[in-house]
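Notes from the pairing session

We agreed to fold both candidates in a single pass and log them together. This is the raw record for the first candidate, unedited. Please don't reformat it; downstream parsing expects exactly this layout.

Candidate A
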Amino acid sequence: MAGDSDQNSEPDWLRNLPLRSEEIGFAPDELIKCTACGKANAPDRNSCLYCGVAVEGVEIAQQLDIREPESWENGFNVVVVDAAGADTDGAAARLASLIGSEKKALTTILDAGETVPLMRVDSESQALAMSDTLAEFGIRTIVVPDESLEPSSPPTRLRSIDFEGGELKLVLFNLPETRLLKSDELALVVLGRIFQARTESIEKRKRRGAKTLRESEMSSDEPVIDIYSRSDPTGWRIPSSGFDFSCLGSKKTLIAAENMTTLASKLAEFSPSAKFVEDYVKLRPLLDFSWPSETRRDTHHVALRKKDVANIFTSNNVRQFTKYSRLQWHLYEKKV
């Protein structure tokens, strides 16, 4: 028959095409149980499909219009303080439906048992609503505004320090000023690293695309130490480059990383009561979820060769580490 011959003449790739390219509906772990009848509902419903009772989580999301603010906006951070013994799987599923994030990433943060930001939203009311939702699952959180962390203003850079008896003399970089800290005034020492990367490429633009003529990559990895007094949340930053390590005396070496380790040990000896935080590098993958590293792309035409375009990609974690460092002082002050 004509119909059979037409069907048999179809190529294999056409006959084997799926009826749809993606799954329709929601995965089981995205569904929200009704608090009244216990049946599962889609996360985008206002009320239960079966009994008509309002679905609390979805109602919150729609009322607050939850979104992640831009890096330059003043957001509010929901920071996990204690999730031990909590229903982290259920909490991650609820949050994933509310903020449109992956459940797996949220579960990883909640199960890590670390005091890190779980999400960043654009208003205090949204953050408090999320904290209340997490409390239902036995998770304790605090809300910290970006304004308290001042990510755009890193700690004051130091040129050198001197250990003078029971006092620490801080010499500011490029400023004719010094500060004195007594041993018991040094409250917090945060160890971290600043990662920076830069990629430059020259492309020739053509009608059918672009051809890369040359490309270069540069990166740096610099240890830093932030120190805070009991009364000053701004803090001071000790970089490994451009810092005078004469305070180490005979223990000073030609390798900056070794000097930074020795200096951290000497600070610990100077102030045994100070709190030391050394887990930034370990926690960085968790911080990337709410506080990703900053990236930038600049493009311009090459002089005298209008068809050639220069692309410059840069990335760094300065803002992320500054927020993490200031968060430690905030937690110290609040005795969390």
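Candidate B (folded immediately after A)
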Amino acid sequence: MKQKVAIIGSGMAGCFMALCLSKKGYRVEVYEERNDIRKEKAGSGRSFNITLYYRGIQALKTVGLWTEIKKISVLAKGNYAHYADNRIVYDPYDSHDTEVLYTVHRNKLNGKLLDIVEKLPNVKIFFNNRLTHVDKKNKKIYLQNTLSKKIHSLSTDLVVGADGVNSKVRSEISSKSGIPEQESWGYKEVHVTANKARQMNLQPHATHTWPRRNSLLIAFPNPDSSHTLMINLPLKGEGSFRTLKTEKAIRQYIANNFEELMPLLLEIVRSILNKPTGNFTTVRTTPWHYKDFIVLIGDAAHGVIPFYGQGVCAALDDCLIIDKLLDESGD
């Protein structure tokens, strides 16, 4: 009988790893501390659009998922940069205008992967289960149900840490295996309806950026011609989220720095005043595994700020590499 694998975290990395291992015949159990993300209220501000580049797309093609994921993604051929002097400059994503990216809302991508994985016969997903401890000597993990508060243990042959930048699995490998570095920037998300996007002349197959000296706003296209605007600002200091505490302050800030976004002022005010501020985190990890019992993937191993556009692509790549290594090592 194939070995049993416990994956901690049901995000993109966890789901994709479950799929790869399932295809090999492993018995896979996925444990997620939070509730099912598919039940989360839309527009909660806890997510944002992500980009899929070549290696992320190739990873999805390798396991036969790209056709399904492509349906919920939007092709973006280039970027329109909106400068403070009212110039708008379009740049394709490469010099030949052949390399493109796709943008997809994080929760939709995660939800689609969960839909696919939960149908696999040798995969089980358990939500509201928080990892409390790993017994490395006896190859056991201890989990607490976040609703009932009951703790239970189970034996497993392999633990995969896919639990993000604040990984509990990483801390169980070693107290020195990587401390998350909080970046000085944060983000808020604003939904731009299709009508507003047309009114503002936002092109549907491109990203839009508003680069400024101490801020960056990015609009990602969605399948229904709406856009998701990501407001990236410092957490403190001049022109930061800390200074934008009133409608008056926000109105003045947008009018002074992003005049063409004034049609979105009401939505921007609501987002900044009411939605939680997302934090950017960087993780540099060593070691990233413990013998043949624990391994880290995705943000748990190498969290990066989203401006590099490689977070989910690197996570999917991790899974394919581990899949290949399992073949080479005979499990």
